[in-house]
């Protein structure tokens, strides 16, 4: 019996490390991919390809073909999460370092709490949660009010506001998905969101002059490797590990990705992309990560409270990084 527990603990640890590292690395992956790929075309191709692979996996595992209503529900969720969320994050990284992008996206649990409360949720935030929200907003203010520079690249205020918009879209999409009609199979639900999100990102690229900037012969090997990483490790491997964790580990443990991913992203940005963070940015990083940690801990103590992970009682999951 002890052997089985130890074995499961080992698998949980490996799965958590996959989510921590691979999702944390997606910010730098996007940053490198868009060095020679237009952002919306890159994001659209990434999610469409990953979604198609997951769709085939879902069908292979016996998932039923989705209905028109399920396609519609997945389309709305995909538009909010992938077009308004991930697509804008990719675009914003033309203007801001990957480390700062990861920090602002880490505020998603904060926005979910705020919008859920404004929407009339019966589960009011505790004093600890409210303190975490206020602390997180203060951390955002440190970046937005007086953006600091990182190395040779200044932090663009428009880029920061775009990242806040993306985080809000992600939060609204996560809340909407709780009542959206999606396939019962988590893999199939995710596949539909990725496929439709990828198509919408491709359509958006037509209106954003992305195609005039696409030159296949000029795409570097470095960008192709980053793109492959995003599809394989970011959208398929890490997400599969995430799905497994939701069924085999405590939600409060799984939700820790929300504040571990930024730490990984900041470290990788410094190690690989030479993103030198200022003291102001580091202060904001500590405040935002601490705020998400506080919110996560206090929410975990509330029976029946919604965890800051993508899912619900019906197994509907949200696409992440």
TrEMBL record:
It is found in: Endomembrane system. Residues 14-144, 158-296 form the EamA domain. Keywords: Membrane, Transmembrane, Transmembrane helix. It comes from the Bacteria. InterPro entries: AA-Vitamin_Transporters (IPR050638), EamA_dom (IPR000620), EmrE-like (IPR037185). It is a multi-pass membrane protein. It holds the Pfam family EamA. The chain crosses the membrane at residues 9-28, 40-57, 69-92, 98-119, 126-146, 158-176, 188-208, 224-245, 257-273, 279-298. GO terms for cellular component: membrane. PANTHER family: EAMA DOMAIN-CONTAINING PROTEIN (PTHR32322:SF2), INNER MEMBRANE TRANSPORTER (PTHR32322). Belongs to the EamA transporter family. This is Multidrug transporter. The lineage of its organism: Bacteria, Bacillati, Bacillota, Bacilli, Bacillales.
């Amino acid at each position: 019996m002890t052997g089985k527990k130890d074995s499961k603990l080992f698998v949980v640890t490996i799965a958590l490390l996959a989510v921590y590292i691979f999702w944390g690395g997606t910010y730098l992956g996007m940053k490198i991919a868009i060095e020679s790929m237009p952002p919306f075309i890159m994001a659209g191709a990434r999610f469409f390809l990953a979604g198609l692979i997951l769709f085939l996996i879902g069908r292979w595992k016996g998932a039923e073909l989705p209905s028109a209503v399920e396609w519609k529900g997945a389309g709305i969720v995909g538009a909010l999460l992938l077009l308004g969320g991930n697509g804008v994050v990719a675009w914003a990284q033309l203007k801001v370092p990957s480390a700062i992008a990861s920090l602002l996206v880490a505020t998603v649990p904060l926005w979910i709490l705020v919008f859920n409360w404004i929407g009339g949720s019966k589960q009011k935030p505790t004093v600890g949660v409210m303190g975490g929200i206020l602390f997180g907003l203060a951390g955002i203010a440190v970046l937005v009010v007086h953006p600091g520079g990182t190395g040779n690249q200044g932090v663009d205020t428009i880029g920061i506001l775009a990242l806040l918009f993306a985080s809000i879209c992600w939060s609204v999409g996560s809340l909407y998905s709780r009542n959206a009609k999606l396939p019962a199979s988590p893999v199939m639900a995710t596949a539909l969101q990725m496929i439709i999100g990828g198509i919408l990102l491709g359509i958006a690229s037509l209106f954003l002059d992305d195609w005039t900037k696409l030159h296949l012969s000029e795409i570097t090997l470095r960008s192709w490797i980053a793109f492959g990483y995003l599809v394989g490790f970011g959208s398929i491997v890490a997400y599969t590990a995430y799905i497994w964790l939701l069924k085999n580990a405590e939600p409060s443990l799984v939700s820790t990705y929300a504040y571990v991913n930024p730490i990984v992203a900041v470290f990788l940005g410094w190690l690989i992309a030479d993103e030198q963070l200022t003291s102001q940015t580091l202060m904001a990083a500590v405040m935002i990560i601490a705020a998400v940690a506080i919110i996560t801990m206090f929410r975990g103590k509330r029976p029946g409270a919604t965890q800051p992970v993508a899912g619900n009682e019906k197994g509907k999951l949200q696409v992440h990084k």
